[in-house]
Amino acid sequence: MMRHALLRWFLPPFLMLALVPVGLWGVAQAQAPKTLVIAIGADQTGLDPQTVENNESGFIMATMYDSIVNYKPGSSVVGPGLAEKWEISPDGKVYTFHFRHGVKFHDGTPMNARTVAQDIDRAINPQNPCYVLGRKGVDTYDDFTYGSVKDGNVVKMDALNDDTLRFTLPKPNAPFLSSVAMVWQAIVSPEATKKYNCDASQHPVGTGPFKFVEAVRNDHVTVEANPDYWGGKPKVDRIIFQIVPESATRMLKLERNEAQILADVPPSDYSRVTGNKDLKLYQQPGLTILGVAMSNDMGPFKDKRVRQAMNYAVDKDAINKGLYGGATTAGQGMPPVLWGYNKSVTPYPYDVNKAKDLLKEAGFPNGFSTEMMVYSNPRGYNPIGGAKLGEAVQGYFAKVGVNVKITQYEWGAYLDKVRHTPWEGFSILGWSGDNGDPDNFLGDLFEWDEIAGAKRPNNNARHRNPDYDKLMVQGRLVSDQAKRAQIYEQANKILHDDAPWVFMNYTNQVRAARASVQGFLLNPLQMFFHMEQVSLQ
Fold first, then answer.
1. Residue 467: which H helix or E strand, with range?
2. Element containing residue 304 per DSSP (H, E)
């Protein structure tokens, strides 16, 4: 025993492997820890689902947490999560969830209807010592899902027993089920939140397939397999989310097998991936939209003929082919992967003469001058960044006499400017879907209520059409999906005619991976869900 111990301490690893009997080599390989490295472009900003909204935090949280219901693998369709089944009352106001048995949080706390309710309580109860919405500077999805505490228009929650949790909504809200499935509404151990003085962000404890190990700022976050996961033991032992801001460096890491999956792939690298037999490019139509917004209530843009002219003025197909790797040209307010998309509505074609005619009809035969706000960084729905898109459309606008001065802002300042400061001109806007429901695009981006008193107004173009707004309200009151689809098809037709944006494209969701990665599925919501099914060969 002593001799073996000495050999273990002093022999280099390759000689130790040489001493492994041939018959045991396969066993040693099978027992070696399997680590999956995912390279992402930016660090997380926190790991408490109730306090963050950036994608990078979502990537990581999706591996550690479950929600009341989860999205099915590879889709935005809601399936069982912590709750095995549920009922919705005929009037669409009462949702009753029945929870599975034997599930524990990573800290050993039993998961049941009562502990789930304790976690949600900190989102909706101002008397809770860990109340989230009351924290200064915290941006959260809780008001989006559970209602506005400020005006009292919030859901009522009752844990009827350990198995059953009931929500009573103040009014029907058809997207509610999809919303509670979001990673931003995942469930945190209430005991851990209490133990760490409400700091679930630095001490994330969920019920998911992977458990938190460590987070090193601007370097990496490590999670390890939860062997007791109710959905099945993960096939890799740990996942390291490596923060690699430079896209060229991320690509090199994939090629050298220092990373096995890339979260962000610029269009210019698509051919580099497809040309390498050891790599694989994953693509699917994205749950995204990108456009150039116009200030609908100010200056020349108050006239919808001007807004339509701007749509005719830009060769969107050429831009989408040249800069976005063949993204689908947009013509309405939501992507075609969603039900409610209106197939009879076609994108505005490139027609300079039509654009000039419309400008002349609107009283601008010689065009006009205006400004455009842009951001520099890439976004999930805009991998080339706002500045490059701004420069691309600037040239097209000039051809019809609309001269544009571009002003660039850092992302945070940019968001503040477009959301909270009246502006006249253009801005680059886009959206990645949160919950797979049409209301999450059409309501969030183009309904007037998003402006009127909203904490985070997303209708940045200040689009206003009473007929359209009525449809948005109606869509939430109806529970039948086929009827809702008809409502949103009608809304999309109005939106196309109103032209609040120059509708640019629906970008594909793109990831790259080593060929050794098996079982990896893209999800329309762009999160790393169901990573317990991924293996390394």
1. helix 466-477
2. helix 304-313
DSSP annotation string for 118-187? HHHHHHH-TTSTT-STTSTT---SHHHHHEETTTTEE-EEEE-SSSEEEEE-SS--TTHHHHHTSGGG--
What whole-number distance in Å separates Cα of residue 90 and Cα of residue 79? Answer: 20
Place of tokens 């929870």: 99
Residue 269, phi then psi, degrees to nearest 5: -100, 0
* Portion of the chain with pLDDT greater than 70, in percent: 90
- Nearest Cα to Cα of residue 517 among 498, 489, 536, 499: 536
Site of tokens 């469930």: 187
Q: How far is CA 224 from its chain centroid?
A: 23
Strand ranges inside 16-127, DSSP E = 35-40, 69-71, 78-80, 83-88, 94-99
Structure tokens at 179: 């919303």
Reduced to 3 states (helix: H, G, I; strand: E, B; else coil), residue 350 is: coil
Give residue for tokens 């455009």: 372
For residue 520, what are the CA distances in angstroms to 69, 113, 513, 531?
21, 31, 9, 7
| Nearest one of 414, 456, 449 to 434, comparing CA atoms | 456
Enter the pTM of the model: 0.84
pLDDT tens by residue, 302-330: 999 999 999 999 999 999 999 998 899 99
In this structure, what DSSP letter does residue 429 have?
Answer: E
Query: 105 vs 199, 213, 296, CA distance in Å?
Result: 16, 15, 49
Pairing of strands 288-294, 328-329: unpaired
Instruction: Name the burial class of residue 452, with classes exposed (0-12), middle (13-18) and buried (19+) by CB atoms within 10 angstroms of its CB.
Output: exposed
